[in-house]
Amino acid sequence: MSQLIVIAGVDQGKKFFLKELTVVVGRHSTNPVALTDNRVSRKHFELRATPTGYALADLGSGNGTRVNGQIVQMAELRSGDRIHLGDTTLLFTTDGSTGSAAIRLTPELDSGVLSGIVRRVPVDAGSVLLKDPTQANTAWLRTRLSNLAVMYEAANAVSQILDVDELLGRIMELVLRTSDADQGCFLVKDVETGALMPKAVKTRGRDKADLTVSRTIVDYVLKEQTGILIANAAGDERFREGASIVKHRLREVICVPMRGRHETVGVLFLDTQSGTDAARFTEDHLHLAIAIAHQAGLAIEETRYYQAMVNAERLAAVGQTIAGMSHHIKNIMQGVRFGSDMVRTALAENDRELLTKGWGLVERNQARIDDLILDMLSFSKERDPIIEPTNLVDLIADVLDVVRGRAKEKKVTLEYRPPADFPVVPCDADGVHRALLNLVSNAIDALEDRDAATVTVELYKAADGQSIGIDVRDNGPGIPVDMFEEIFKPFISTKGNRGTGLGLPVSRKTVQEQGGELTLTSEEGQGCCFTIRLPMTQPTTA
């Protein structure tokens, strides 16, 4: 499915899935993609489905629409395109893919086709020459292979290092090692302010670098969007007004833009301060620098893209949590309000029976609020379980004693046959008690108004000899297979308004924190069985 992700602007982090054939984007609240940027028109542009994806059509917007920096009225979008409107930047992505070109392998009829081979090279020659270009036969090939080896090492760093600062530091070390520069740095644009921030500032032979960069040169490179090599920086009339060039005796300078796929994210700046007359930078150094800067630009752009994706997912999760909590709190407060009305009426009419019913309703909903808060804290907070030898036989009996009155009220039979001589098991007793109480309570609720309703709890050693199992089985309506994983997600409840939708996620989390697992087996109409599996050899915590 195609989507728009806001990667810059006041709505940064928002994500919009494109589900309709026509999608209007703008500031109006009724738009499928509604933005809050004041510089965006109420109906700014429209996305129209095409056989290959989506096409963009500007709807006469006040400030225009740009795709990858170009003002457009109509444009066919490709995955990865950036759309600029007002102060907002949208990233268009799609999971659609195009088919690859077809090839056909046929048996060669001319048996003499291999007689034209004039030279053979062993398969490992490529890696050997990349590691040591001096083994090449000609000066031209040695130079090209040296540059290629640098690019190979830079690409390898980009593929393995995820932290941008660490990556730029590694690339700068590589540049200083393979060029004659005395010092260098990257200047990277801040996403929000656009200010150039120094990164990977390094001087040859020094641990700490104190580098002064010519703003005159940097501004020229960014404006002209071209890489430059200056053989005599102090004497170049284009930069004669740059005081930093004269003051810091910059003889030779290489400055190139860091161009990603969609925009320039900064510059790479290198200089020499040697007093010798011989030139140390060549055109090969310039070409190599601009290639490396492009690699760095792509890496920075990709990192920012994925950060925007993460932020969008985080905002979606927060929105889902707030929506779920609001729904359940609203239902609980309705019960509290109804109970309060009953209490108020009972007091006015001196009706003790109505007072008891109303107060009971208030207390039950207060307990639901307590359960919701406890579940939210348990689900959101990482905790270290307190592992200690636990008598699970007695723990299960205690859980059943807690729910026995509730089971009797709903006419549910509880069955439990404690095994003899069952060993103590290292686990978090409170966590297991809470998880088991939730499972048994759920089973009782699932059996309401059913004949011969029975909940069976069984404790046993697993066949692998390394773990124990606790089964909670009921003969209720069962759970459809397609819901097996859904019910373990937050705010998914099969109880309607009575459940918080957090009981099972919290129970699974509690069991997993102890190195165990909580699983479900069920056949629709035949009941279901939840199984807690815990290791028998889990070490106790200090």
TrEMBL record:
Keywords: ATP-binding, Kinase, Nucleotide-binding, Phosphoprotein, Transferase, Two-component regulatory system. The keyword Kinase applies. It holds the Pfam family GAF_2. GO terms for molecular function: ATP binding; phosphorelay sensor kinase activity. It catalyses: ATP + protein L-histidine = ADP + protein N-phospho-L-histidine. This is histidine kinase. PANTHER family: PEROXIDE STRESS-ACTIVATED HISTIDINE KINASE MAK3, SENSOR HISTIDINE KINASE. It comes from Limnoglobus roseus. Its EC number is 2.7.13.3. It is an enzyme of class 2 (transferase). Gene3D superfamilies: 1.10.287.130, 2.60.200.20, 3.30.450.40, Histidine kinase-like ATPase, C-terminal domain. Residues 23-72 form the FHA domain. The keyword Nucleotide-binding applies. Residues 324-538 form the Histidine kinase domain.
